[in-house]
Specification:
By secondary structure, this protein is an alpha/beta fold. The chain is built from eleven helices and ten strands. Helix 4 crosses helix 11.
Length: 323
């Protein structure tokens, strides 16, 4: 055999050997996964609702996963920094993260995001915190129709607190104005605590918030819920009507869930998904979550449909917006 032919044969054998070893190593990695802790990127501050959700999951997942889940908070830009870090993470199963709405789609709709929904392989939505309109307990407004009538009688006279553009509460106010043909003036506040300060202090006429943020104030007799932004009445708030049943088509909420970077191998993804299923159905987890998390479990297919539907909504709002 000529020298050149021998070299060609040698190189072919070498390539095949390396390819076989690489494939074997890849299979072995999936089979042995996990061999080290898994990082959960939380796209918000420590102590918030998303952080609480992630830490509660990590605590009870120990029963079903051989390595710990380590929560790393990466707040900033309304979740954008954390979402982008997750989208850019190596898809090897050692980094997953949290998503929360409407921010994850609002950043896409605004053109700010360096990711798309296809940057993520969804795992599960865990929490849905419905939107609600509240007024101070001594407010003259007893119903949504009272607000509409007052605003139409004196246009531009009423104010409503939100946390500013990009949040579900801001979108809720925008949709309410459009659906009712009115113009409640938006008053941006610093977070949900700021919103409550505004409405409790009588600085605004109402606040667009989430149920979990105001439940304690309602029970204490400080605030009154006028309507929730859900398809049906909530079983734990049977006396609070929905906007829909009052003839105003508004559905709004803030949901929180988990995702992995796109491109994660199926075998590793399935191990993670199985861990989430076992943990979220664990009786001890459910007991710990009661009163802390408003559970609304959506597995990947349903979660994907929910986010895609929300993206259409935020696209429409940003297309008409001046900001």
């Amino acid at each position: 055999m000529k020298k050149t032919s021998k070299i060609v044969v040698f190189l072919l054998v070498l390539v095949l050997t390396v390819s076989s070893l690489w494939a074997a190593g890849k299979k072995e990695t999936a089979a042995n996964y996990p061999t080290k802790p898994v990082t959960i990127i939380v796209a918000s501050k420590a102590g918030g609702g998303t952080d609480t959700m992630a830490r509660l999951f990590a605590k009870y997942a120990k029963k079903y996963f051989p390595q710990p889940f380590v929560v790393v908070d990466k707040p900033g830009a309304g979740g954008q920094l954390g979402f982008e870090a997750l989208a850019k993470a190596k898809p090897d199963g050692y980094t997953i993260g949290t998503l929360f709405t409407p921010h994850v789609t609002a950043h896409i709709s605004s053109g700010r995001a360096k990711y798309t929904l296809n940057s993520f392989r969804l795992l599960v939505n865990v929490v849905t915190d419905p939107g609600v309109l509240v007024v101070k307990s001594d407010s003259p407004f007893k119903t949504i129709n009272d607000i509409i009538a007052a605003e139409k009688k004196n246009p531009g006279s009423l104010t409503g607190a939100t946390t500013g553009p990009g949040g579900d509460d801001f979108f809720a106010l925008t949709k309410f104005n459009a659906a009712a043909g009115i113009h409640i003036k938006e008053v941006p506040a610093k977070g949900s605590a700021g919103e409550k300060t505004e409405v409790l202090g009588g600085h605004v006429d109402m606040a667009f918030m989430n149920v979990s943020q105001v439940e304690s104030n309602v029970k204490a007799g400080e605030l009154r819920m006028l309507a929730v932004m859900t398809d049906k009445r909530l079983p734990y708030l049977p006396n609070v009507p929905t906007f829909k049943e009052l003839g105003i088509n508004i559905v709004s909420d803030s949901s929180r869930g988990f995702a992995a970077p796109a491109g994660i191998p199926d075998a590793i993804y399935n191990k993670l998904l199985d861990t989430f299923k076992k943990t979220l159905n664990d009786p001890d987890f459910r007991k710990a979550a009661k009163g802390v998390l408003l559970l609304n479990i959506m597995w990947p297919k349903e979660y994907r449909a929910y986010l895609e539907g929300l993206l259409k909504t935020t696209n429409e709002i940003y297309a008409k917006s001046p900001w």
